């Protein structure tokens, strides 16, 4: 009804306020005298006596300003009108129940997920309970205030449990005791006020708002302190994300509703403001489910870019809208509201535009031509020979550009005919002559256009070059700038790998020749080979970071400067923006490859925590779920064994994704005084063990066996079609005395 009444000195009641949108707006006027409520004296009505309001009324008798008596029989409101009040709370509560179900299914083993589920339940129940406050129902109001005050407290409990895995906490137990004391005090006041009418308890309502604000404000202050403490550490992104989440959740309510409400003109409705609170559960559920913080800096950079671009168009559209509609005159609130609507729409549209741009820049095979190197990065990470590099490069090019033929070959200036099988003899001689003329331009990582196709320079030693010939495209069109940029990047990438492989292959060939003289390869030699391989991986990662990556960043900065400093047409600026986005993607993929080649902080973080991070990243790229259990493994393995287990796990995960098509992967490891035990199981397609020869497709299996054998361990695996694969590895912690590869090198 939304009608407030006041008791007069003579004992009667008079209408003092009527809120728009309620029943009273249509039938009552300020100043009407209330004669009877539900057929009895208004003073005997509980709600009128306790709260000074009309609510839950079935019949009403009044006397209007003209002295006329009126009698009203109030029917329950229609369902459509009721849904206006309870529809949004019901929808929000249903959404929170879905969150709880997802948490229960996927995160029941994590204690913090239980507390987060409680947070969702309290918040959803508070949404529903808010409806009872309009009805002035005492028990419902008491329950609502309890739930509402518990929301920030339960949230702090969740943050403390979540941060425990990082050896941090948000607030101490003393603060929690203080919050519970405030909550109990407020509820006690509410109970007293519900049964005893005391004027001095009228300040309980603002106190309720204060008790809700205190834990939220303190939590934000503490988050700011934590962010400042860890702004240069590993937890920088975690606390930055939590701060941004709180700002997005509470700022609209405070800045766009509460503060403007003080002057009587809120910019957005309370329903819209509270809808932003959904940012909290969504963000923290993501953090809990994935056990990972996404790159918030990457998103922020794009948001600030799009937000800055949208300011001027939003202001222009708001002014034009006011000029066209003229519905609110020169009202500042109206202009502000229209500006915010257009501004948010434009920011969203710019994000959509970015996604559409990437779709439009995709080739026939669905691979972005601007730099989606994820597949190539994974293939290069396990390259051990030049043939492997050729296969990975060929696969990447064929799946991104429609090329009917390509061929790798060695060439020097002394030959008169290139060994390209797809060409006729005359064409081979013509190509040899063209390469001879352009000999000075054949530097590693370059692209040379020819009368038929093009040549990528993968490596060079003196007068001899290692080239990749690419035929003309299948649609007979020229290579466009996007395709050329991609090919040059691949060539630079491959050139670095080739130079390192040249040294590694020579060393491996010498070692293999020595092994043939002695039969089975001793463990210390295997360890030497794998350590050399890891050293080359680290060196390759460093080269990629210091050369290719830095060059890409330099060109990106020059491109950004050109876009800002020079005037250009809209089409040219849009094309340069697309090229800029492509360079950003290339930079991101090179960084991912460096991390793949050189696992970051493996020795500092330890095996268990590094594997958890690996599983989180793998599950974001693949469709399987990893169930990981580790017990009593801290410090039992040395650095070489730790790296070996990490590489073996990488290979098993690749097999589960690329070949096994698994949906569930189980990995467990534990140790006793004698040995370290590692068990792997997936539910993939499986294979016949008899068919698993050491071909290229099973090079990973052979490599895992050799890694384990280098530590005098045992490697057993079992698989059959349709039954997945199981692997068991046992590495003795006290191997028999055998002179080590370090002694051999010395």
Automatic annotation (TrEMBL):
Pfam families to which the protein is assigned, alphabetical: HATPase_c, HisKA_3
Enzyme class, first EC level, given as a word: transferase
Species of the source: Saccharibacillus endophyticus
Keywords: ATP-binding, Kinase, Membrane, Nucleotide-binding, Transferase, Transmembrane, Transmembrane helix, Two-component regulatory system
Alphabetized SMART domains for the sequence: HATPase_c (SM00387)
One function term, GO molecular function aspect: kinase activity
Keyword hit for Membrane: yes
Stored SUPFAM superfamilies: ATPase domain of HSP90 chaperone/DNA topoisomerase II/histidine kinase
Record protein name field: histidine kinase
Domain Histidine kinase: 645-735
Coiled-coil stretches: none
Source domain of life: Bacteria
Gene3D superfamilies the record matches: Histidine kinase-like ATPase, C-terminal domain (3.30.565.10)
InterPro entries noted in UniProt: HATPase_C_sf, HATPase_dom, His_kinase_dom, Sensor_HK_TwoCompSys, Sig_transdc_His_kin_sub3_dim/P
Membrane-traversing stretches: 83-104, 111-130, 142-163, 175-195, 207-225, 237-257, 263-283, 303-325, 331-352
Enzyme Commission code: 2.7.13.3
Catalysed reactions listed for this entry: ATP + protein L-histidine = ADP + protein N-phospho-L-histidine
């Amino acid at each position: 009804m939304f009608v407030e009444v006041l008791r007069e000195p003579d004992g009667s009641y008079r209408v003092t306020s009527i809120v728009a949108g309620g029943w009273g707006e249509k039938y009552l006027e300020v100043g009407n005298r209330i004669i009877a409520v539900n057929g009895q004296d208004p003073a005997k009505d509980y709600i009128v006596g306790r709260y000074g309001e009309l609510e839950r009324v079935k019949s009403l008798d009044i006397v209007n300003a003209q002295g006329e008596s009126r009698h009203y029989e109030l029917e329950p409101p229609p369902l459509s009108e009721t849904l206006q009040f309870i529809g949004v709370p019901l929808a929000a509560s249903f959404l929170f129940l879905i969150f709880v179900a997802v948490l229960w299914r996927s995160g029941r083993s994590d204690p913090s997920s239980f507390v987060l589920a409680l947070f969702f339940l309290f918040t959803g129940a508070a949404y529903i309970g808010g409806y009872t406050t309009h009805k002035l129902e005492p028990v419902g109001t008491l329950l609502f205030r309890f739930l509402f005050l518990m929301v920030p407290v339960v949230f702090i409990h969740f943050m403390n449990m979540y941060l425990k895995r990082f050896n941090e906490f948000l607030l101490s137990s003393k603060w929690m005791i203080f919050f519970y004391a405030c909550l109990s005090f407020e509820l006690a006041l509410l109970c007293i006020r519900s049964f005893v009418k005391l004027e001095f308890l009228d300040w309980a309502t603002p106190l309720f708002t204060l008790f809700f604000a205190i834990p939220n404000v303190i939590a934000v202050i503490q988050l700011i302190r934590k962010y400042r403490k860890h702004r240069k550490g590993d937890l920088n992104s975690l606390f930055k994300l939590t701060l941004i989440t709180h700002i997005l959740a509470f700022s609209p309510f405070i800045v766009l509703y509460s503060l403007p409400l003080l002057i009587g003109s809120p910019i957005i409705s309370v329903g819209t403001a509270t809808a932003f609170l959904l940012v909290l559960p969504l963000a923290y559920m993501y953090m809990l489910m994935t056990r990972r913080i996404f790159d918030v800096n990457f998103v922020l950079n794009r948001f600030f870019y799009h937000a800055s671009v949208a300011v001027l168009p939003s202001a222009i559209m708001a002014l034009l809208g006011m000029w066209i509609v003229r519905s609110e005159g020169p009202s500042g609130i109206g202009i502000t509201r229209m500006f915010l609507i257009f501004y948010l729409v434009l920011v969203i549209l710019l994000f959509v535009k970015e996604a559409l741009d990437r779709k439009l820049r995709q080739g026939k095979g669905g691979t972005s031509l601007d730099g989606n190197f994820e597949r190539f990065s994974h293939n290069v990470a396990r390259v051990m020979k030049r043939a492997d590099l050729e296969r990975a490069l060929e696969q990447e090019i064929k799946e991104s550009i429609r090329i009917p033929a390509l061929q790798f070959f060695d060439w020097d200036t002394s030959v008169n005919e290139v060994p390209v099988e797809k060409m006729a003899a005359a064409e081979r001689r013509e190509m040899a002559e063209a390469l001879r003329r352009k000999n000075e331009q054949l530097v590693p990582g370059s692209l040379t256009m020819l009368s038929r196709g093009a040549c990528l320079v993968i490596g060079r030693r003196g007068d001899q070059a290692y080239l990749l010939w690419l035929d003309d495209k299948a649609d007979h069109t020229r290579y466009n700038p996007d395709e050329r940029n991609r090919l040059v990047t691949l060539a630079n990438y491959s050139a670095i790998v080739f130079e390192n492989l040249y040294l590694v292959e020579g060393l491996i060939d010498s070692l293999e020749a020595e092994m043939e003289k002695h039969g089975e390869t001793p463990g210390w030699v295997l360890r030497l080979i794998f350590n050399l391989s890891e050293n080359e991986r680290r060196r390759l990662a460093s080269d990629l970071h210091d050369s290719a990556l830095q060059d890409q960043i330099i060109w990106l900065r020059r491109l950004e400067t050109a876009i800002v400093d020079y005037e250009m047409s809209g089409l040219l600026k849009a094309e340069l923006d697309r090229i800029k986005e492509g360079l950003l993607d290339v930079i991101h993929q090179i960084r991912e490859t460096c991390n793949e080649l050189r696992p970051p902080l493996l020795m500092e973080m330890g095996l268990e925590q590094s594997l958890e991070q690996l599983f989180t990243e793998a599950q974001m790229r693949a469709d399987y779920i990893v169930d990981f259990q580790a017990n009593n493994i801290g410090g039992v393995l040395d650095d070489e064994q730790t790296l070996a287990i990490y590489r073996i796990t990488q290979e098993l995960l690749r097999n589960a994704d690329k070949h096994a098509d698994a949906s569930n992967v189980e990995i467990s490891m534990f140790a006793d005084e004698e040995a370290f035990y590692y068990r792997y199981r997936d539910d993939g397609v499986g294979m016949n063990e008899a068919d698993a020869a050491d071909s290229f497709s099973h090079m990973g299996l052979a490599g895992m066996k050799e890694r384990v054998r280098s530590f005098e361990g045992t490697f057993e695996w079992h698989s059959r079609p349709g039954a997945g694969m199981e692997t068991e590895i046992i590495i003795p912690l006290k191997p028999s005395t055998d002179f080590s590869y370090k002694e051999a090198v010395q």
